[in-house]
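Hi all, long-time lurker, first post. I run a small reading group and we've been trying to get comfortable going from sequence to structure in the token notation. Rather than ask abstract questions, I figured I'd post a concrete chain and ask someone more experienced to write out its structure so we can walk through it together at our next meeting. Sequence below, copied exactly:
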Amino acid sequence: MEEAKRIKQLPPYLFARIEKTIEKAKAEGVDVISLGIGDPDRPTPGHIIDKLCEQAHNPENHRYPSSVGMLKYRDSVAQYYKERFGVDLDPKSEVVTLIGSKEGIAHISLCYLDPGDVALIPDPGYPVYGIGALLAGAESYAMPLKAENGFLPDLDAIPEEIAQKAKLMFINYPNNPTGAIANDDFYRKVIEFARKYDVIVCHDAAYQEIAFDGYRPPSFLEYPGAKDVGIEFGSLSKSFNMTGWRIAWAVGNSRVVEALGRIKSNIDSGAFQAVQYAGIAALSGPQDCPAEMSEVYKERAKIVIDGLNSMGWNLDMPKATIYLWVPVPKGYTSISFAEMVFAKSGVVITPGNGYGEYGEGFFRIALTVEKERIEEAIGRFKKSIGPLEF
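-- Answer (accepted) --
Happy to help. Here is the structure in token form:
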């Protein structure tokens, strides 16, 4: 039973490895505090659950859904973009429903990449960007995200021959794993680069609604010319605590949206309509949840930052996302530090090199456990991890 080459080339998925580590430790009686996976711990708002239950009883929703999504759902996405960002979208041609943004991010490479083509991938970055390119038989070119550049890729450093072969560019702000945000000049430069080299920009905006102290992350599509060169992936997972519901969207350039819908029609049968109705309830109903969760994550981030800074780190408060990106102390690699922390404290952190070569030297903390457990985790750090050098 010989596996295909594309499967043999796939690395073990980072978070699947973390889940196995946690399961093994729990079976051995360890009180594990996992700061490893960005899975919101708070429940989905009640009005969204109520809408799902109501629509799950409707027999019309028990049949195959449209692969591109109900028009009512796509219309609610378009309305959200109009009200939140001032962006006009045609729900019929510029919006496609996704079974979670991860699905769309993986499938977009199958739409546009052939063997020999290049995808420009942020490094460190969400592993699925590169995995999608690999499954399409294409090559990935890492765009380093370095602290000295504010964790923005240096587009001028991309070699001309790579830029000429590139067909997709993935960007993601607010960023996972670094927590960085992007400014107006960066987005304008991305659009200029995409026009020059005929590259499709794929902006992963999964963390668009989690931000602090009045900061409101923009949409890539707000910028002139953005819709000409790319699309944006949005999701209800983090903003409404709906990771398990698997409901999201891609919006923007109509040709790219159509191609994504076309490949979906041949691969999946669309999102359950009752879940799409729940998505409508999220987008068009009360918007307290994203604001409330932003305050929750801000409080948790402050606990971690204050605690780590008291141990010798020098961290600033991020402006957005549910993660903290932290340099490892001297004498450690990303993996050796994560392993030492877990062995001594039972606290799971994610080694930065799991997000790419340029993630080495960092670890990620997900702020997705209650503050009491975060305080417990920091207490264990202080008690069990000895003196550190920076």
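A couple of things your group might point at:
The mean pLDDT is 95.
The chain is about 40% helix and 15% strand.
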